[in-house]
Design brief:
Layout: E1 3-12, H1 18-23, E2 28-29, H2 31-38, E3 46-56, H3 58-69, E4 74-83, H4 85-90, E5 94-97, E6 102-105, H5 116-141, H6 145-153, E7 156-158, H7 160-165, E8 171-172, H8 194-203, H9 209-228
Parallel strand pairs: 1-2, 1-3, 3-4, 4-5, 4-6, 5-8
Antiparallel strand pairs: 6-7
Helix pairs in contact: 2-3, 5-6
GO molecular function, one term: ATPase binding
Pfam family, one: CLP_protease
GO biological process, one term: protein quality control for misfolded or incompletely synthesized proteins
Length: about 230
């Protein structure tokens, strides 16, 4: 089993813009970057995705989200920020977020120009795009479309704790989960504590050799019987 690392850093851009950002030595991520790594993934391999991105072009975010969502054994870690289209990518699988990181979701924007007909048409396009992209948040959190669209309308910035409360992430990094006590059938019954069990264990005398051999023989017989049935 191999572990593959994917870094989503800087602006998320189309493939044919990548050379420009590389020329100036600026962080950027395009779909081709992700595809190049995923093409090496074999069945059973693990994929770790690290996000620190302000977002970028929406169809790039959608494409990367779709590629990662179709993979198994994918874990996503937000280490700096996951804003705009990058927050869409964060919804592609199990996700943890650094306690110092930020997430931001907002509506799609455009630099369109033209007369009132062009503006009215673009407004409808943007509303449709918002509805399409909000499905990533809905499927991750179980929130209603109305709740998600309202969150996007207000350009919502969230800490790790706030993102966890909304179900946008699964865990805050470095938090230790407290072990849960097993459920019991009734209020009058309780399991012994770990201290009680250790105390009793220390009081129990080791079985003599003859008893031990007898118990082992019975155990072997039960195993054999179970295998033949």
């Amino acid at each position: 089993m191999t572990k593959h690392r994917i870094d989503i850093r800087g602006v998320m851009i189309p493939n044919d813009y990548k050379w420009y950002y590389d020329w100036f030595g600026e962080d950027s991520t395009c779909p081709k970057d992700i595809r190049g790594i995923l093409d090496q993934v074999q069945t059973g391999d693990e994929i770790e995705v690290y996000i620190n991105s302000p977002g970028g072009v929406i169809d790039v975010g959608s494409e990367i989200y779709t590629m990662l969502r179709s993979q198994e054994n994918t874990k996503i870690y937000i280490t700096g920020e996951a804003c705009s289209a990058a927050s869409i990518v964060a919804m592609a699988g199990y996700c943890e977020m650094s306690p110092t990181a930020l997430m931001m979701v907002h509506c799609v924007s455009s630099g369109a120009s033209g007369n009132h007909n062009a503006m009215e048409h673009m407004a409808e396009v943007l509303r449709t795009a918002d509805q399409a992209l909000c499905t990533a948040y809905i499927q991750k959190t179980g929130m209603s479309q109305k709740e998600v669209l309202e969150m996007m309308e207000h350009e919502t910035w969230m800490t790790a704790q706030q993102a966890k409360e909304k179900g946008l992430i699964d865990k805050i990094m470095f938090e230790e989960d407290a072990p849960e006590a097993p459920l019991v059938a009734g209020p009058l019954f309780s399991l012994p504590t770990a201290e009680q069990m250790e105390k009793v264990k220390s009081m129990i005398r080791p079985a003599d050799k003859e008893t031990t051999e007898l118990l082992q023989a019975e155990l072997n017989f039960l195993k054999l019987k179970g295998a033949t049935e």
